């Protein structure tokens, strides 16, 4: 009986994060979502990460389409983004590991990819689908590469960024979007076809 009650409580908690009607998942993609293209190269750091955490990059991930996230769910997203941004110290891989590229779950410090990995894991622990939590590679206005976490939803694609305390729609960020994890396979990556087509007018000012 206690196990049944615990399972019911977990279901209620997950239900608070999402509106899970069949109509939600069959709805067309939002115009505020990234348009992904063909399979592209996997970042070397993620490839090496997958060698260590094989179960997190294995095939078999189900993609029912972006979910309708509730206001409670967005509060969870914002809280995790803010908490991790404040708890971790930004440090380059060179300083931390003595190499240019190394993706890992951070303890107290890490590079942008490490922030992303931890946020993704925390959101999965809170009931979000891995198919809606996609590591994304972008280029900053100064030309430097950067990694952010994309949260897919029926309202569009939102960005969790260690350089910004706010969770923003991807078109409201100053980045050029290059590629991201495939929603159908966490070990594969796809190109982003409209990565610089929807930039807001404030970019570059």
UniProtKB/TrEMBL annotation:
InterPro entries: Transglutaminase-like_Cys_pept (IPR010319). Residues 1-31 form the signal peptide. Keywords: Signal. Gene3D superfamilies: 3.10.620.30. This is Predicted transglutaminase-like cysteine proteinase. The lineage of its organism: Bacteria, Pseudomonadati, Pseudomonadota, Alphaproteobacteria, Hyphomicrobiales.
């Amino acid at each position: 009986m206690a196990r049944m009650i615990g399972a019911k409580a977990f279901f209620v908690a997950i239900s608070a994060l999402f509106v899970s009607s069949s109509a939600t998942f069959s709805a067309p993609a939002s115009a505020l979502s990234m348009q992904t293209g063909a399979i592209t190269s996997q970042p070397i750091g993620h490839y090496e990460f997958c060698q260590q955490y094989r179960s997190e990059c294995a095939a078999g991930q189900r993609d029912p389409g972006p979910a309708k996230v509730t206001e409670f769910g967005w509060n969870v997203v914002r809280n995790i983004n803010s908490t991790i941004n404040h708890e971790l110290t930004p440090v380059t891989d060179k300083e931390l590991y003595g190499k240019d590229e190394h993706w890992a779950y951070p303890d107290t410090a890490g590079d942008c990819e490490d922030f992303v990995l931890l946020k993704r894991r925390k959101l999965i622990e809170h009931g979000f689908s891995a198919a809606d939590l996609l590591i994304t590679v972008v280029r900053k206005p100064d030309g430097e590469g950067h990694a952010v976490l994309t949260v897919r939803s029926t309202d569009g694609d939102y960005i969790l960024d260690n350089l910004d305390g706010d969770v923003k729609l991807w078109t409201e960020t100053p980045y050029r979007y290059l590629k991201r994890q495939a929603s159908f396979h966490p070990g594969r990556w796809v190109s982003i076809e409209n990565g610089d087509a929807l930039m807001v007018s404030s970019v570059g000012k």
